[in-house]
Structures are given as structure tokens and as C-alpha cells.
Write a structure and sequence with these properties.
- Belongs to the short-chain dehydrogenases/reductases (SDR) family.
- This protein is an alpha/beta fold.
- The chain contains 15 helices and 13 strands.
- It is globular and about 65 Å long.
- It binds nicotinamide-adenine-dinucleotide.
Length: about 450
């Protein structure tokens, strides 16, 4: 599934036609398209800055160096300078007056970003700040990032925020690696919270981080699930791809393509949680990564919605997930340092006419990860959700044209995302380096206006 406007914009002659008729001209987005590498910033120019009293700078600079960045300081910037990435450490602010540092640093360089540039800011976690002015300053950084992202998004550039709890500075390397690379292409204008609770694994490899891990991806035969199975396997995981028995043929093909194992199973069957748990235990001794991806839409205005449509969406998108996790977590089928990942949606954040059933399930999953997020920290298990915006899959191809066009264009990048963009975010959250991130809901939506 692809976007006709992105294809047209790649041809210079058609690009001017798009401009003339006043349509947005989507930038071709840079996508990593392969496994993690040790030095993704090699040969790239990165500008680093920090506010007064910033606390994460040492760790940030070590990470930039390890990523192969050619670091520049603000003093060397000229009109011709071009930055592939910019990092600003805004932690340690104690008063909103210090926000002036953001203006002073970014104002002179706003014309110096390359297309597809990556901007990352770090700030203290507002909820645990030491004082009211410190909380205000920290939260203000999020508004700055979201607005900056909207200014630079048309060039395919992104800006994201890493909130760092005091004492969790040594956990920012993983998130920085993700946000500064082309693995995070369609994640834009988003905050991620890195906290110090919960055990980190002893070893945090940056390449092939999932070597030796076993992953379960539900609804993995196609779409986002299949792309996720592929990315997880590229990073070393053995993937158990689950889908309904009626789709056994597509399921087999996908599982084979990623060197994984097919598991035909309807997740709403009463015995599904036990059957899945027994399968994982007997075949692999347990599971490290669970991606609850299977999901359906059955859209109808509530007045016209038959009860079976309500029941079906609630059963697949929400109740089965809770039932499966109850067994997988309860019986310790999920290994230490495991990762539970749910597919929410911007529809679960913003709501949508005709989606009372779907919206309820996807918002329910937000409640789920927020309440479970810190519960298994003693075993290093994290629980997070991703909330995709408009992604080019069978689900969105079925939308009426005008609704589909609205969903595609109403974001900072004027285009829909690809299944691999969601797969990238899920894969990052599955890595050992994301051990400081739990209970988060991260949107992958090109900074969609819906629910923003
Ligand atoms: P898709 O329809 O392409 O794939 C979903 C898969 O889930 C299918 O292979 C289907 O057979 C499987 N499935 C459905 N019911 C099942 C059941 N009872 N047991 C086992 N498997 C079952 O959908 P997609 O677009 O790839 O979406 C994947 C997830 O992402 C869903 O949870 C969806 O709600 C969410 N999401 C998608 C978008 C988007 O724009 N495509 C946006 C937000 C959220």
C-alpha cells in the first residue's frame, strides 16, 4: 500500500503540478531499512547544546560519540553549516526564565537543518520536579518540542523529547540512539519518559540486541504485525507469528520469511491464553517479547451498531489481551527483562465518530499499560503501548477516500506512515536499551493533528 502523492512528489515535473494546485508536497522520508548499526551518525554533523545546570549532558555526549557523530559546538556555526541532528539538554532547569536558552540556541540555527534531520531535547520529568517553577519549565519544553516539530516536519525532519527522571541519566542512551537515527522516521513531536525504577539488564548491546530472544507477535500474518515480525527477527529474535487459523497460508508464508514459527490461533478462543502459554513454554521455555498486535475495526455510528460488532471488537482488541497476559505474566512464562507491547491508536486518544467500540478498546489499552507499567520492575519487565496514526495497511485501505485522504495528510509530514515505521518503534521498545521506558504510550503518527 502506498501514497500516490509521495510517489508523484518524487518526480520533479509532477512536483511542480502538486505545488500549483496547492496540495502539500510530501518529502520522501529517510528510513533505515535494515538492522541497527554501531555508528548510525558516522559522517553526520551533530550540534549539541545544554542549558545551565543540565544534568544529562555527560551521558548524552558519550552516546553521541559512540554513535559516530561528528560533534560541532554552537560557537562554530556559520550560515553554511548543516546539521543532520541536534541535541539540546534542557534538564536541570529550576525556573521558566531559563527557557530563554531554547530561543538562544535554536533561533540562529533554524535554517541550518538538513531534510530528515533529527532533533532531540531532554528535560526533567515534570511530575517529579523539585519545585513548581522547575515543573513548569520542564513541561514547557514539551510545548516547545511539539511546536518545533510542526515547523520542521515538512522537510521530513523530526523533533522529540526525552523526559529523564533524576538518577535515570544512564538510561537515555537507548532512546537517544532510536530518536537520532532513521529508525524513528514517523515518530514526531512525541515525549518519552525514562525512569529509574525497574531493573535494567546487565548487558545492553546496540547491534543485534534481540539475539537469543523469543518474541510472540499476534495478528502477525500481514500489515503492521508482519513488518514487526521482520524487524524483530532482523535484530536476532526468533518470532512466533500468530494469526487466525483461516489465514494459515499467509501466516505460514510470513513466518517462513522471517525464519520464525507459525502459530494458528484465534486469540478470542476461551482456551487461547493457556494454549499460547503452553506452546511458548514447551517449545522455547518462555517468551521475552509479546506484541499484542491483532486488532480489528467494525465501524458504525453507535445508533446503528449491532451488539455483535461491539462484542467482537471488545473481545479481540482488549479482553483477549488481558486474558493472555494474565496467564503469561501470572505463570512467569514471560522471562525476566521481558517486554509487553500493545497496539493502541490515535483513535483511542482522540476518539472517532463511528468508532465507539474501537476507541474504547484502544483507550482501554492505555489504561492497561499505565497501570501495569511499574508492576514488574523488580523483574525488569516493561509494559508499553504504541499509538499509530494513519498507517498504509489493509485496515486504512478500506476507508472511504475522503476520510483516508484526511488521515493521510493531517500530520506534520503530509503523508501516511508505513507498517515498518510502527515496527521500528515496537522493536526499539523491545530492546534491552529501552529498559528505562515503561508505562509509556508513544505515538507513531507523523505528529497527527488527531488527538494531538
Ligand atoms: P491488519 O488488518 O492488516 O492486520 C491485523 C491482523 O490481526 C490480521 O492478520 C488478522 O487476521 C489478525 N487478527 C484479527 N483477529 C484476530 C484474532 N481473533 N486472533 C488472531 N489474529 C487476529 O491490521 P493492521 O493495520 O496491521 O493493524 C495492526 C494493529 O495496529 C491493530 O491492533 C490496529 O488496531 C492497530 N492500528 C492500526 C492502524 C493503521 O493505520 N493501520 C492505526 C492505529 C492502530
Amino acid at each position: 500500500m502506498s501514497d500516490y502523492l509521495v510517489r508523484m512528489a518524487q518526480q520533479p515535473a509532477l512536483r511542480s503540478v502538486i505545488k500549483t494546485i496547492g496540495l502539500p508536497t510530501p518529502q520522501t522520508l529517510a528510513r533505515a531499512g535494515g538492522p541497527y548499526v554501531e555508528t548510525p551518525l558516522a559522517g553526520k554533523t551533530v550540534l549539541f547544546g545544554a542549558g545551565d545546570g543540565a544534568t544529562a549532558s555527560k551521558k548524552v555526549q558519550t552516546t553521541l560519540k559512540a554513535m559516530g557523530a561528528e560533534a560541532q559546538s554552537a560557537a562554530d556555526v556559520t550560515g553554511d553549516s548543516r546539521f543532520n541532528a541536534v541535541v539540546f539538554d534542557a534538564t536541570g532547569m529550576t525556573d521558566p526564565a531559563q527557557l530563554r536558552a531554547l530561543y538562544d540556541f535554536f533561533h540562529p540555527i533554524m535554517r541550518n537543518f538538513t531534510g530528515n534531520a533529527r532533533v532531540v531535547l531532554l528535560a526533567d520529568v515534570p511530575e517529579t520536579a523539585d519545585s513548581v517553577p522547575a515543573a513548569v519549565a520542564a513541561r514547557a519544553v514539551e510545548g516547545f518540542v511539539r511546536s518545533l516539530a510542526k515547523e520542521i516536519g515538512r522537510k521530513g525532519a523530526t523533533a522529540n523529547l526525552v523526559y529523564v527522571e533524576k538518577g535515570a541519566e544512564d538510561r537515555v542512551a537507548g532512546p537517544l540512539r532510536f530518536f537520532l537515527s532513521d529508525h524513528s522516521t514517523y515518530v514526531d513531536g512525541q515525549p518519552v519518559r525514562v525512569t529509574k525504577g525497574g531493573k535494567m539488564p546487565r548487558s545492553v548491546p546496540v547491534t543485534r540486541p534481540l539475539d537469543g530472544k523469543v518474541a510472540l507477535v499476534t495478528g502477525g500474518a500481514r500489515g503492521i504485525g508482519a513488518a514487526t515480525a521482520e524487524r524483530l527477527s532482523q535484530e536476532g529474535a526468533h518470532v512466533v507469528v500468530l494469526d487466525i487459523p483461516a489465514d494459515a497460508e499467509t501466516l505460514e508464508t510470513t513466518a517462513k520469511a522471517v525464519g520464525g514459527t507459525a502459530l494458528p490461533q484465534d486469540i478470542t478462543d476461551a482456551d487461547a491464553p493457556r494454549a499460547i502459554a503452553d506452546f511458548l513454554k514447551e517449545k522455547f521455555g518462555g517468551v521475552d517479547i509479546v506484541v499484542h498486535n491483532a486488532g480489528v475495526t467494525r465501524d458504525k455510528m453507535l445508533a446503528n451498531m449491532a451488539e455483535h460488532l461491539w462484542d467482537m471488537v471488545l473481545a479481540i482488541n482488549l479482553r483477549s489481551i488481558l486474558a493472555i497476559d494474565e496467564v503469561l505474566l501470572g505463570d512467569k512464562i514471560v522471562n525476566d527483562h521481558g517486554r509487553i507491547l500493545c497496539l493502541s491508536s490515535i483513535g483511542g486518544i482522540a476518539g472517532n465518530a463511528g468508532q465507539t467500540n474501537y476507541g474504547a478498546t484502544k483507550a482501554g489499552l492505555i489504561g492497561y499499560v499505565q497501570s501495569q507499567g511499574q508492576k514488574f520492575g523488580d523483574r525488569g519487565i516493561t509494559v508499553n503501548a504504541v499509538a499509530p496514526g494513519f498507517i498504509e495497511t489493509r485496515m486504512t485501505a478500506e476507508m472511504p477516500f475522503m476520510i483516508r485522504e484526511g488521515g493521510r495528510r493531517m500530520n506534520s509530514m503530509s503523508q501516511g506512515g508505513q507498517p515498518q515505521d510502527v515496527a521500528e518503534l515496537l522493536t526499539f521498545l523491545a530492546t534491552p536499551g529501552a529498559g528505562g521506558v515503561s508505562g509509556n504510550v508513544v505515538r507513531v503518527c507523523g505528529q497527527s493533528l488527531i488527538g494531538a
